[in-house]
């Protein structure tokens, strides 16, 4: 009986391996399509710049950890494309579903992040305990070209939107030190 159960399990194992290989192959084809389209159409300044871009995508295709997660893959692709420093060359989603954004939007001015609430305008320190500067810096890695202010504002806009409705704790600085307040998300379509 043990031989029968082993034989029965083999097709399942083969099927799992085949599915993993197909998903991996789809990711590699996706990366190759982006590579080909970009190399064929982007005005690289030199052959060296083109070859460096190509090598980055080749390394990405070989990285099993990245290819196993579509979220990580898209993030890495955006980061690589952003190295071209061209605001017209980007990987974007076509968002047609409902999105949520902060009820009190955060804005960037004079090198600082600000939020207006009933009692005044305050400097934003963090969102849900994570430094706003670190969040924006990480998101900027996916944005190529444009001025620093443009990149920061674009990153900030992406950080303030979500597909999920949830509250956010915004840490602000006031005259007396730091305090927290919840900024409840509001429903809307962007």
Short descriptors:
single chain; 6-stranded antiparallel beta sheet; 9 strands; alpha+beta; about 190 residues; Pdz3 Domain; 3-stranded antiparallel beta sheet; 2 domains
Tell me the CATH topology of the largest domain.
Pdz3 Domain
CATH superfamily of the largest domain: PDZ domain
CATH level-two architecture of the largest domain: Roll
The tally of beta strands, per DSSP, is: 9
How would you describe this structure to a colleague?
The protein is of the alpha+beta class. It folds into 2 domains: 2-82; 99-188, PDZ domain (Pdz3 Domain, Roll). It is 49% helix and 23% strand. It is built from 6 helices and 9 strands, in the order H-H-H-H-E-E-E-E-E-H-H-E-E-E-E. The strands form 2 sheets. Strands 2, 3, 4, 5, 7 and 8 form a 6-stranded antiparallel β-sheet that branches. Strands 6-1-9 form a 3-stranded antiparallel β-sheet. Strand 7 and strand 8 form a beta hairpin. Helix 1 runs antiparallel to helix 2 (47-62). The protein is elongated and about 55 Å long. The N and C termini lie far apart (60 Å). The model is unreliable at 1-19 (pLDDT under 50).
